[in-house]
Amino acid sequence: MFVVLTATLGGMAGLTEPTGAEQSVRDSARATAILEEAGIEEPPAESVMVASRTEGGWRAAAADVVRAVKDTGRVKDVREPLPSEDGRAALVGFRMRGAGDSTDEKPITEVLDAVEKVREGHRGEGVEIHQYGEASAGKWLNEILGDDFAKAEWTAVPLALGILLVAFGALVAALLPVALAITAFLAANGILALVSGQLHIDEQTNSVMLLMGLAVGVDYCLFYLRRERDERAAGADAQTALRIAAATSGRAVLVSGLTVMVAMAGMFLSGLLLFQGFAVATILVVFIAMLGSVTILPAALSWLGDRVEKGRPRLFGRRGGGRGRKQAAGGAGSPGVAGQAGSTGRRAPGGRISGGLLRPVLAAPGLFAVLAAVAMLALAAPALGMKTEQLSLEQQMSEDAELRVSAEKISETFPGGPSPARVVLKADDVRSAKTRTALADFRSALREEGARFGKGVETRVYADSGVAVIDVPLAGNGTDEASLAALDTLRGRLVPDVLEPAAADGQAYVTGELASSTDFNDQLRDGIVPVFAFITAVTFLLMLVCFRSLPIALASIALNLLSVGAAYGVMTAVFQHGWGDSLFGTQAVGAIESWMPLFVLVVLFGLSMDYHVFVVSRIREAKDRGAATREAIREGVRATAPAVTGAAVIMIAVFAVFATLSMQDMKQMGVGLAVAVLLDATLVRMVLLPAVMMLLGERNWYLPSWLRWLPRVEHGEADFARAEHAEGATGPVAAAPAAVDGTPGGARDRQHVG
């Protein structure tokens, strides 16, 4: 009812997206705010380049382009063809009629069709015609976003279900984690739409929320369900198994969920609306998934009972579960169970493969700790040269996309043409002699700079609003050193010296794609420090309280930073330097999307804590029952290895789906997160963590005397679960409870519970 209600209300409310000023920061935001406050909706600009093999050979085709676009009735302000310096190309500029944020794609479709007819009419004459602009790029973006989100939704969910079916061997058991993840996403999506009325949410947030919903929803359910099945296999009845799962995995879910939500809350400190939206979305979906894992999931398991084993494909046979396990073992508490589980009523830790891998690690922990750390640091090394920028739409496209090819060819011939810098001037009287003189002087100053700025400077004056807008083509390709130098000249000298004296209160600002990207990067550089400090400090405190161990808390931070560093290094190597980019089905664009490092940091801290909390909780549980450190590490890692591996495989598969999408930022996110989860679940959790804990020995559980006041968090079964298990058992299980090392453990267990 909760999911249906929230999804319905959210659907009725709809998602409220941010304005251009809200999406920008610093001078770019101020410039956009001036336009929005004045009610100026800049019509989308389009450019059509006609190139020929000979000088002037473009004239006939260019004239046909001008005539064709005018005949559509969808354009205005069509400029005469602007020749290139070598005379072999010309640029036709115009603006679409209507607002810049219009979702009606019919006008631009008609213009694109008209230009295509001209292209066909001049085919074979040695003439090339390329079109690019805000409207055509926006049309591509809308189509890609819709297709990509549908692909992610319809690929990731069945993929996760298939992996879970292999992991559990039963359809009903496999459906539970997917159902929890989907319902958490639907409910969070509905609430997010309601929240967006107050905090405007970017459309990209939906993809991020789906990704996080699948990640944590499947993780939490998988760990809970795996523990319940392990207890059933050990001879517990259905209700006792559920109670033990609630007291162990359920508690770990709460700790992990709280840690993830706190990590996500760090994005509020970034000062960027995009990340604030990410924070709200991820916190919502994690909270709902966590809530469902400790309420709806145990209720469903209690209601299903042994029916959770239904839907077992024949190829899996009967691997034992529920009723089958109990019958095979001879019932709870039978000699067979006691012989299998030992005097505690527990079976030996599973995970044969993990046991084989763990044996040499525990035998030579120092060697393996050094080797694993060196491997992680080597993967992280390329991140030292990471370059970030707000990728333009053409960079988001694949290399062979027609629109990207057109944008690159136009930029080569007419630098700054497709994406000029936009200077916005607010004056008390834009028609005054002072303002007119300043605008004329500004154009003269641009000409004096020579090659630093391109041709086709366009000025538009809105007298009623007191605003003037000047489009200034920048040298270079729009992102290189030449373009950045031109932008610095505009912001550092020309605009302050020439335009600001004529502006009202100095309101003269530069925006545009490059300016917005620069401002965004600068804000991220300033914002990532408080976000990083907040996440590391709060995660450290949560781990300190959860495990009452200073070394464990410090190790949590160090291991997570290694995973994040490795993810940064791989992304930089693949998408900036192009090392092995073909292996990932992508191509390098020379930079990392500017919001990606901060987002990956926060998400990986959250997801890594999932695995860390579950593994260390199981180790601490064994330690609390009296096991020696080596045995506790072996039991904890082997017992959680199947669940951690299953969860990691699902996450890697889901992130890999995002790596196959069309948008470059989604590819970067998918590859970075998939590689990081792979490393975290294998090299970090299977090698580094046990090696480090083995080296620390009993110092793992060191807590300074001045911190002894911290609350004790129980990691084993609750008193009532243990008591009910003992009452329902017979023979050796009930008669002689003992710790895993074979010594009497009842008193010790009660002491730790207290």
Overall shape: it is elongated
Individual helix count: 27
Estimate nothing, just give the exact number of structural domains.
Answer: 4
| CATH homologous superfamily identity of the largest domain | Multidrug efflux transporter AcrB transmembrane domain
What CATH architecture of the largest domain would you give? Answer: Up-down Bundle
Let me know the largest β-sheet: 5 strands, antiparallel
Query: What gyration radius follows from the Cα positions, in whole Å?
Result: 31 Å
Tally of strands: 11
Percentage of β-strand residues? 5-15%
Distance between the first and last residues' Cα: 39 Å
Low-confidence stretches: 319-349, 718-754
What CATH first level of the largest domain would be assigned?
Mainly Alpha
CATH topology of the largest domain: Multidrug efflux transporter AcrB transmembrane fold
Class per helix and strand makeup: alpha+beta
Helix content: 55-70%
Q: Roughly what is the average pLDDT, rounded to an integer?
A: 82
Structural notes for this entry:
With 754 residues, the chain is of the alpha+beta class. It has four domains: 1-13 and 169-312, Up-down Bundle (Multidrug efflux transporter AcrB transmembrane fold); 42-139, Ribosomal protein S10 (Alpha-Beta Plaits), CATH 3.30.70.600; 368-388 and 521-704, Multidrug efflux transporter AcrB transmembrane fold; 420-511, Alpha-Beta Plaits (2-Layer Sandwich). 63% of the residues lie in helices and 7% in strands. The protein has 27 helices and eleven strands. The chain has helices spanning 2-13, 20-23, 26-37, 59-71, 106-121, 134-168, 171-195, 205-233, 238-265, 273-294, 296-304, 323-329, 335-341, 352-363, 365-380, 393-396, 402-413, 433-448, 481-499, 513-547, 550-576, 596-624, 629-659, 664-696, 719-728, 732-735, 746-753, and strands at 45-52, 75-76, 82-83, 89-96, 127-133, 388-389, 421-426, 458-462, 467-472, 508-511, 592-593. Strands 1, 2, 3, 4 and 5 form a five-stranded antiparallel beta sheet that branches. Strand 3 (82-83) and strand 4 form a beta hairpin. The longest helix has 35 residues, at 134-168. It starts with a helix and ends with a helix. The model is unreliable at 319-349 and 718-754 (pLDDT under 50).
